[in-house]
């Protein structure tokens, strides 16, 4: 901006200076011409004086020769003054050959001055001869010489006068020419002065209009850009073509808008990430909540089971005695009856039902009061193999394919081998019973972070959705001759070992029980991970 | 900055520049010469100059001296050109002049009849304060120094009251046995000035000439063409060059002051300028006894300086 202002001002001043210089030059030329005119006036005056002096000298000479006077003072003075004027004119013309030539019509003036120089030389020669002639003439005693010199001196004097008249006329002509040129220059200078002033004003106005447009245009563009950005449109940029302050400002503004746009994009990206985090957090909170709810349900169920167990133990204790009495008396009665007795069959039924009841009571007691728990480091793979060897020759196993996937490096765990065997036996039997039409029994063992994992899977019909929550409750069974205590007891054993048990089921894939056991445990000081695919736990 | 303010500032600057330019354009008018008015002096001292050379050159030569003396003496010193050697006696007698630069023989003649005092004379470059009379010819005239070869020739003399231009040639011829000077030559022309006599020979108007050696050499140095053509035949003994002599009746103070100024001319700037015009380096005192040689020469020729007639033209 500053540069443009300075350039504009500089241009105006330049134009003004050029105009002024032209005017000054013309004024100088006018002054020079006027000086030349003044000089010509003086020169013409000098010519007149010289003519007068020469004619005066001629007259004095005549007077002297005629014997009217012996005084030669006036004659000598006339010629002396003539000489002085001649010297003055010679100096004047010689001195002006160069400086006049450059200001006036060069060739013509020089030509004229050269011509004048020739005439001056001739006059100088003539006057020199004239002085010699006169000098001799006024002192000589020779009459003939005197007459001769008188004649030649007069002739030379006349010639000099003729030359003087000629150059006076030329000088007069030159003065008129210079005067005409001076007048023409005055007129031209007036035109130049007015033109310069007019041009300076007009150009100044044009330059300043252009400058103001150049200043306000980019500023307006900048303001529009600011307004667009203020309205949230960061894509627009301020257009600029100059490299001045406005250009720098627009460039900085565009840079600022670009950075602002980048920052907003970054903000949006962070916001989206934050939303993702929120969703993930919500999901995790939901999962945690679900697990917590599951744990609470388990705890409630465990408390229920514990209460049921206590209740069952009390009832069983109270019932077992009368049952033993009933069984004893039935068996005693039967032993006293003949085979043909008609009540013998009924007594048999009573005996069987009583035995069944006693079995149930025994189960309840086992559930409520677990058997003696003796833990030692146990190889679970061995327990599984022993269990499988107990059942693999049963008729129901003919259509079952047993698949073992046992980790050879499975860590031993602290457990009661008999109780653990009972758990796996229950699970395996349940699996076999679920596969009436045959299928595959798959047993997998593996190490996990804090213990081991055992999966017992079948390809049976699975457990109905609504029943899964009830399978670990005592007396819940889907089998005609089941007591509904197997899974409850298994659950109790695993819990006693500090482990956990989960179930996964579907109608098309069958059911999988997953048992987790810690390597070492003390009651309540460990926390086994819940497997992802097992969302239901006993 | 508002546009109107910018335009205002620029307009002010432009107007200031226009004003400066207009004033700076004024040409200084031609100087008007206003010479100092000359002081009006009551007394006038007129010094005459003999026409021993071109009268115009004489005037020019003595003008600076007159100007200097005017200032130094505080009187109007006027140079008067005489048209003849002979007229100087009348001017002294009539007291129309107060003094003059006398030629040596002229001084001897007038001293014998009027009361004049020699004061001083210029000493030219080379410490020359005397001159000799010379007799000369053109080389192509085939004239030798033997006076017999001069017989019947046309001789250019200056004036009958000049040593170099009249007395010496007469004395020289008499010395070589020619008693009738006028008859020995075909024609005697009195040119009136030394340079006229020299030019007369150079131009071939005369065969032999007699003039001052100083004038001869000056003319030759100014005109190399003359130098190559001229031949000196004889030279006289030295006599004092033109001396400023004044009327004895002039007041003593003026005479003494004039003499003092002339003798100290070389000590002042203006004086040196006057000396330069005279082609001199200083002035030296002139005594009457210095002209005794000439008086003897005149005696040899039988000239009675008290009755020797001055010749007047017409």
Describe the overall structure.
The complex is a heterodimer of chains A (538) and B (314). The relative contact order of chain A is 0.06. Chain A is an alpha+beta fold. In chain A, a hairpin with a 3-residue loop joins strand 6 and strand 7. Chain A is rod-shaped. Chain A folds into three domains: 30-187, Four Helix Bundle (Hemerythrin (Met), subunit A); 267-369, Helix Hairpins (Orthogonal Bundle); 373-538, 2-Layer Sandwich (Heat Shock Protein 90), CATH 3.30.565. The model of chain A has no long low-confidence stretch (mean pLDDT 81). Chain A has a six-stranded mixed beta sheet with strand order 2-4-5-7-6-8, with helices on one face. Chain A has a two-stranded antiparallel sheet with strand order 1-3. Helices cover 70% and strands 9% of the residues of chain A. With 314 residues, chain B is an alpha/beta fold. Chain B has two domains: 44-126 and 242-300, D-Maltodextrin-Binding Protein, domain 2 (3-Layer(aba) Sandwich); 133-236, Periplasmic binding protein-like II (D-Maltodextrin-Binding Protein, domain 2). Chain B has helices at 3-24, 55-73, 87-93, 104-111, 163-175, 181-184, 194-202, 213-222, 224-229, 252-263, 269-277, 292-300, and strands spanning 44-49, 76-81, 99-102, 116-124, 130-131, 133-138, 154-157, 187-190, 208-212, 230-235, 239-240, 243-247, 280-285. A six-stranded mixed beta sheet of chain B has the order 2-1-3-12-4-13. In chain B, helix 2 (55-73) links the parallel strand 1 (44-49) and strand 2 (76-81). The longest helix of chain B has 22 residues, at 3-24. Chain B is globular. The model of chain B is unreliable at 24-33 (pLDDT under 50). The interface between A and B is large, with 43 and 42 residues.
- Counted by DSSP, the helix tally of chain B is 12
Instruction: Give the ordered list of helices and strands of chain B.
Output: HEHEHEHEEEEHHEHEHHEEEHHEH
Low-confidence stretches of chain B: 24-33
For the record, the CATH class of the largest domain in chain A is Alpha Beta
Helical/strand content category of chain B: alpha/beta
């Amino acid at each position: 901006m500053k540069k443009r202002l300075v350039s504009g001002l500089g241009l105006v001043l330049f134009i003004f200076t050029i105009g002024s210089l032209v005017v000054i030059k013309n004024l100088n030329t006018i002054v020079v011409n006027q000086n030349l005119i003044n000089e010509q006036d003086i020169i013409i005056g000098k010519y007149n004086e010289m003519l007068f002096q020469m004619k005066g000298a001629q007259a004095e000479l005549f007077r002297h020769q005629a014997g009217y006077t012996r005084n030669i003072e006036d004659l000598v003075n006339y010629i002396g003054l003539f000489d002085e004027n001649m010297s003055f004119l010679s100096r004047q013309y010689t001195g002006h050959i160069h400086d006049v030539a450059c200001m006036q019509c060069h060739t013509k003036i020089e030509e004229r001055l050269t011509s004048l120089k020739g005439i001056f030389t001739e006059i100088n020669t003539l006057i020199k001869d004239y002085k010699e002639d006169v000098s001799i003439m006024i002192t000589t005693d020779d009459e003939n010489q005197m007459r001769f010199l008188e004649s030649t001196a007069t002739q030379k004097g006349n010639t000099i006068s003729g030359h003087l008249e000629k150059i006076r006329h030329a000088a007069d002509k030159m003065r008129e020419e210079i005067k005409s040129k001076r007048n023409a220059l005055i007129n031209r200078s007036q035109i130049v002065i007015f033109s310069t002033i007019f041009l300076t004003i007009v150009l100044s106005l044009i330059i300043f209009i252009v400058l103001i447009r150049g200043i306000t245009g980019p500023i307006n563009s900048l303001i529009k850009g600011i307004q667009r950005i203020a309205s949230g449109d960061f894509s627009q940029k301020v257009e600029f073509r100059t490299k001045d302050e406005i250009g720098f400002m627009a460039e900085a503004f565009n840079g600022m808008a670009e950075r602002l746009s980048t920052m907003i994009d970054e903000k949006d990206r962070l916001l989206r990430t934050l939303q993702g985090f929120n969703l993930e957090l919500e999901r995790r909170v939901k999962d945690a909540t679900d697990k917590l709810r599951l744990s609470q349900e388990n705890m409630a169920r465990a408390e229920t089971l514990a209460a049921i167990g206590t209740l069952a133990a009390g009832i069983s204790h109270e019932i077992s005695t009368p049952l033993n009495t009933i069984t004893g008396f039935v068996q005693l009665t039967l032993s006293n009856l003949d085979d043909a007795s008609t009540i013998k069959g009924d007594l048999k039924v009573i005996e069987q039902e009583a035995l069944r009841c006693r079995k149930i009571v025994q189960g309840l007691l086992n559930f409520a009061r677990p058997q003696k728990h003796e833990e030692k480091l146990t190889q679970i793979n061995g327990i599984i193999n022993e269990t499988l060897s107990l059942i693999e020759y049963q008729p129901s196993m003919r259509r079952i394919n047993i698949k073992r996937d046992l980790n050879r490096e499975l860590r031993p765990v602290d457990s009661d081998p008999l109780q653990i065997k009972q758990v796996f036996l229950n699970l395996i039997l349940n699996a076999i019973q679920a596969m009436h039409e045959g299928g595959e029994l798959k047993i997998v063992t593996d190490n996990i972070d804090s213990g081991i994992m055992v999966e017992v899977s079948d390809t049976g019909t699975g457990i109905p959705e609504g029943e899964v929550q009830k399978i670990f409750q005592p007396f819940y069974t889907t089998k005609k001759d089941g007591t509904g205590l197997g899974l409850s007891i298994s659950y109790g054993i695993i819990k006693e070992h500090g482990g956990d048990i989960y179930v996964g089921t579907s109608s098309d894939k069958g059911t999988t029980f997953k048992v987790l056991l810690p390597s070492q445990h003390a009651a309540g000081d460990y926390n086994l991970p819940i497997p992802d695919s097992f969302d239901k736990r006993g | 900055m508002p546009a109107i303010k910018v335009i205002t500032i620029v307009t002010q600057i432009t107007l200031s520049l226009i004003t400066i330019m207009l004033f700076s354009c004024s040409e200084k008018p031609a100087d008007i010469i206003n010479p100092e008015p000359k002081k009006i002096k009551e007394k006038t001292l007129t010094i005459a100059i003999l026409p021993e050379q071109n009268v115009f050159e004489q005037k020019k030569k003595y003008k600076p001296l007159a100007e200097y003396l005017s200032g130094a003496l505080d009187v109007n010193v006027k140079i008067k050109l005489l048209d003849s050697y002979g007229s100087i006696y009348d001017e002294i007698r009539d007291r129309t002049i107060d003094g003059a630069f006398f030629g040596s023989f002229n001084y001897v003649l007038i001293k014998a009849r009027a009361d004049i005092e020699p004061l001083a004379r210029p000493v030219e470059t080379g410490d020359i304060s005397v001159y000799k009379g010379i007799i000369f010819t053109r080389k192509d005239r085939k004239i030798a120094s033997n006076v017999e070869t001069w017989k019947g020739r046309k001789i250019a003399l200056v004036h009958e009251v000049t040593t170099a231009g009249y007395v010496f040639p007469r004395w020289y011829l008499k010395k070589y046995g020619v008693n009738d000077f006028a008859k020995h030559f075909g024609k005697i022309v009195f040119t009136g000035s030394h340079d006229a006599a020299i030019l007369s020979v150079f131009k071939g108007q005369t065969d032999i000439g007699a003039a001052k050696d100083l004038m001869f050499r000056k003319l030759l140095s100014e005109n190399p063409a003359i130098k190559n053509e001229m031949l000196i035949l004889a030279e006289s003994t030295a006599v004092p060059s033109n001396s400023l002599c004044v009327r004895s009746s002039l007041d003593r103070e003026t005479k003494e002051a004039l003499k003092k100024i002339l003798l100290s001319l070389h000590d002042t700037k203006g004086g040196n300028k006057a000396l330069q015009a005279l082609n001199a380096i200083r002035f030296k005192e002139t005594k009457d006894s210095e002209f005794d040689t000439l008086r003897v020469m005149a005696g040899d020729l039988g000239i009675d300086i008290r009755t020797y007639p001055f010749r007047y033209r017409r």
